[in-house]
Amino acid sequence: MRPASTLPGEAGGPVGAGRGAAGDGVPAGEDSTRPVVLVSAIGRAEGGRAAAAALACAGVGAARSPLLLDVGGCRPRPTLLASAAAKRIEDRLAAALPGAAVGARGGVCHAAVRTDPAGIASLGAALDLLPRTAIVVHCEQEGLRSLMGAPVASRIAAALILSEPGIGRALAAPLLFELLDRGLAVALMARRQDWVAERRAMFGALPAGEVEGLPPALVAWFAGSKWSTRRPTEVGR
After folding, report:
1. How far apart are CA 106 and CA 41, in angstroms?
2. pLDDT digits (tens, 9 = 90+) for 48-107
3. Considering the entire predicted model, what is its pTM?
4. Contact (Cβ atoms closer than 8 angstroms) between residue 187 and residue 5
5. Confidence check: pLDDT of 210 > 50
6. Extended beta strands in the chain, E state
7. Cα–Cα distance for residue pair 112/101, rounded to 1 Å
8. Chain segment 147-165, per-residue pLDDT in tens
9. Which of 68, 119, 123, 162 suits 130 as a labelling partner, its CA being 20 to 30 A distant?
10. 159 pairs with which residues across the strands?
11. Residue 33: its pLDDT value, please?
């Protein structure tokens, strides 16, 4: 496969240098600009939403909560057990974006936006509101064209694409080349996680050390506290 691009900070991407702000879900002293990763499944591949949730879980820390933005997803239901950091992000989004579908689930804050232009615009507003929060954006294949054609697409640094075993790379090739041409680092995932891991991930309760099946380099980069200095040149390995 064509080599993936370098990650942000190595080829003109954003490099964080500030400190975390209250309510961002990031402890003081960590990089001020956090990564945004796109996750999508193509063809008949399944498990994209759960893979996005698992990647978000990998970014949970003692005082840090990632945000999972689900483009075209259902309204998330808050869980009885949720971290203080996830609840802070939920409160900030609810206050700044009235009517937003937001819910703190375990160690991750989930939010759903519509696939229409207004929904995509609200996704951009969420990124502006939480620049220090690590964010995973899940989008079904049908909504990718709208998402990648919007200005907010320039904020996405990497992508995880789920494809069908065997024929997945051929089906994925046009999308992969487009993402690579945009300067994104890209990883392929050929098999979905087992159902227990998927369930735990969707509840925001999958421990970072138990995230399996996702490309290790991508997980390590996303979870790193100083992500802009962790720059593997190919996240698909």
Report:
1. 24
2. 999 999 999 998 986 789 999 999 999 998 888 899 999 999 999 998 887 779 999 999
3. 0.81
4. no
5. yes
6. 36-41, 67-71, 101-105, 108-113, 135-139, 158-162, 185-189
7. 5
8. 999 999 999 999 999 987 7
9. 162
10. 38, 186
11. 61
